[in-house]
């Protein structure tokens, strides 16, 4: 006998990511969306366009997102009885979250789970993606029962995968030098005002960092925290920024560094330019060697984490 309650539409699985330009021509529109109506000067546009030019003229984020979604869906569908259908929605570019929601409604989806490809919750990140789902529903006068994954920054697969990256980075140095290697764990900065607003972002990042450092077996003096990629706006942003942090470490005599960003789950401009080009340049000027292991991308431990947190939300809907 078949289960008659779940025979109609599949359960939707909405994966959301930041979005990235597919060519340099997309840059003005992409930046206008990120900067939400604030004027982008020609100088800022030129600078960011040039950053993208140096990483190949487009963002690799959409491609990594599709690969992560495909791998996660394979694992999730193997664990869940109900038929599932995946959707991808981006916050700042095509395919937009609102369009993905419309597609879900057109497909007759009535129940769905949603996750952002960012492990830490903030009112300035994850909450904004979730608001776009609500906007998509109200724009299309539709209703879907959504279960949201808010965060997954302490999940063991995510922590272990990044601890493995830390170990890989240290192992890139000759055996006799590894004790002198310093590990910098970092994430995207946000305006300092989030602390006054009680936002959990900074605490969650520090919690992840402590867990990753412990799982990698680092001594307390062997690692430190840094923010990176602060936006170009006049208000103060959380620091220290990676560049000043490298100067600070250099002042303490550190010459060998492993850089592991913990808030990004795939390689994109904030890693490929901000670390691999800008921070590498600073490190070279300071006479430091900086190693940056690959981002999580489709690491099976990370994909297993996504499948696990989604599986729990699917169970909550069943
Ligand atoms: C936790 C918050 C943020 C994450 C994660 C994040 C990821 C991310 N950002 C870019 C590219 C750009 N971000 C820019 C500005 C910007 N980013 C955030 C927050 C996060 N970004 C904020 C709050 C801002 C400022 C927005 C504003 O009002 O000005 C920009 C614009 C240029 C700039 O200000 O630096 C770019 C480009 C990527 C690719 C990315 C990857 C997941
Ligand atoms: Fe951003
Ligand atoms: Fe950014």
UniProtKB/TrEMBL annotation:
<keyword id="KW-0350">Heme biosynthesis</keyword>
<dbReference type="Pfam" id="PF00762">
    <property type="entry name" value="Ferrochelatase"/>
</dbReference>
<dbReference type="InterPro" id="IPR033659">
    <property type="entry name" value="Ferrochelatase_N"/>
</dbReference>
<dbReference type="GO" id="GO:0005737">
    <property type="term" value="C:cytoplasm"/>
</dbReference>
<keyword id="KW-0963">Cytoplasm</keyword>
<dbReference type="GO" id="GO:0046872">
    <property type="term" value="F:metal ion binding"/>
</dbReference>
<dbReference type="GO" id="GO:0004325">
    <property type="term" value="F:ferrochelatase activity"/>
</dbReference>
<keyword id="KW-0479">Metal-binding</keyword>
<comment type="similarity">
    <text>Belongs to the ferrochelatase family.</text>
</comment>
<comment type="function">
    <text>Catalyzes the ferrous insertion into protoporphyrin IX.</text>
</comment>
<dbReference type="InterPro" id="IPR019772">
    <property type="entry name" value="Ferrochelatase_AS"/>
</dbReference>
<dbReference type="InterPro" id="IPR001015">
    <property type="entry name" value="Ferrochelatase"/>
</dbReference>
<keyword id="KW-0627">Porphyrin biosynthesis</keyword>
<dbReference type="GO" id="GO:0006783">
    <property type="term" value="P:heme biosynthetic process"/>
</dbReference>
<dbReference type="InterPro" id="IPR033644">
    <property type="entry name" value="Ferrochelatase_C"/>
</dbReference>
<keyword id="KW-0456">Lyase</keyword>
<protein>
    <recommendedName>
        <fullName>Ferrochelatase</fullName>
        <ecNumber>4.98.1.1</ecNumber>
    </recommendedName>
</protein>
<feature type="binding site">
    <location>
        <position position="188"/>
    </location>
    <ligand>
        <name>Fe(2+)</name>
    </ligand>
</feature>
<keyword id="KW-0408">Iron</keyword>
<feature type="binding site">
    <location>
        <position position="270"/>
    </location>
    <ligand>
        <name>Fe(2+)</name>
    </ligand>
</feature>
<comment type="pathway">
    <text>Porphyrin-containing compound metabolism; protoheme biosynthesis; protoheme from protoporphyrin-IX: step 1/1.</text>
</comment>
């Amino acid at each position: 006998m078949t289960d008659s309650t779940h025979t109609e539409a599949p359960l939707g699985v909405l994966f959301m990511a930041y979005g990235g330009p597919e060519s340099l021509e997309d840059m003005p529109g992409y930046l206008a969306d990120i900067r939400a109506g604030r004027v982008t000067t020609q100088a800022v546009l030129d600078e960011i366009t040039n950053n993208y030019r140096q990483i190949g003229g487009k963002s690799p984020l959409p491609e990594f997102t599709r690969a992560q979604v495909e791998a996660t869906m394979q694992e999730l569908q193997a664990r869940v009885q109900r038929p599932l259908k995946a959707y991808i929605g981006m916050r700042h570019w095509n395919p937009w979250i609102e369009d993905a929601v419309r597609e879900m409604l057109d497909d007759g989806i009535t129940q769905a789970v949603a996750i952002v490809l960012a492990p830490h919750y903030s009112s300035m990140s994850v909450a904004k993606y979730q608001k776009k789902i609500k906007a998509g529903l109200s724009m299309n006068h539709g209703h879907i029962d959504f279960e949201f994954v808010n965060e997954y920054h302490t999940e063991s697969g995510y922590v272990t995968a990044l601890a493995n990256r830390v170990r890989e980075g240290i192992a890139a140095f000759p055996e006799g030098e590894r004790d002198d290697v310093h590990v910098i764990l970092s994430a995207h900065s946000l305006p300092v005002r989030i602390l006054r607003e009680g936002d959990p972002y900074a605490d969650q990042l520090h919690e992840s960092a402590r867990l990753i450092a412990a799982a990698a077996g680092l001594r307390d003096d062997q690692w430190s925290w840094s923010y990176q990629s602060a936006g170009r706006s006049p208000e103060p942003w959380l620091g220290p920024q990676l560049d000043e942090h490298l100067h600070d470490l250099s002042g303490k005599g550190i010459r060998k560094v492993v850089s592991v960003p913990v808030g990004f789950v795939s390689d994109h401009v904030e890693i490929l330019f901000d670390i691999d080009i800008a921070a590498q340049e600073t490190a070279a000027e300071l006479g430091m060697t900086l190693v940056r292991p690959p981002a999580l991308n489709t690491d099976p431990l990370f994909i297993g984490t996504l499948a696990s947190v989604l599986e729990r939300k699917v169970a909550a809907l069943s």
